[in-house]
Sequence to fold (207 residues):
Amino acid sequence: TTAMNGLYYLIYQTSMGREVTFSEAWSQGKARLLRSIGISFLGTPLLLTQVLLLWMMTNQAPTSPLLWLLSVVMTLFLSSFFAFSFCAVMIDNVKVLRGAWISVLITVQNFFRTSVITGTVYVVGLLITGLTVAILSLGLFGIVPPFPLSFDYPTYQKVLAIPIVSWTNWVFNLVLFPLESVMLTFAYLQFTKEVPYLALFERQSTA
Fold:
């Protein structure tokens, strides 16, 4: 979490044309560590909802289009929620509750625009997984999935358990996460420029 905080701090300071050292970014991230933990705690109900959806897709209705849709929407929402919460903490130096609420407002009001970013990363991840499985199915590397392939979530879980697929996804996330963070940070700056969410939160708190 400290590294994640430092990343958002580094992105923001760099966008302002300021030079930031690794130690400074790490120090700033560490200073707001407890707030990030608080954000994660507040996001726990959302995470549990996602876990419930995945459990239902695994055990109850693995081919249900509605559950797939809800799971994708929740995944995109969670990505934006946590990114904007950390941005609020690291950029505007707000407290936990304020940061989480501002993040919810931004995500809900700009869900389509944020989904273009998070959805692109999500789709690219699925394409990379599918491409990896397709290559394995051809037996080019002497590795063939030991189960029949079908379009349902249990099969997707089994595919992700294949070491080479798991490794490919890990590398993908390692490379794409910083890029997604950059885009969401700039999105946060743009959204807060369009609408004064900090002032809106203050008015709602005192109403």
In short: The chain has a mean pLDDT of 80. The chain is about 80% helix and 0% strand. The first helix runs from residue 2 to 15. Residues 6 and 69 are 33 Å apart (CA to CA).
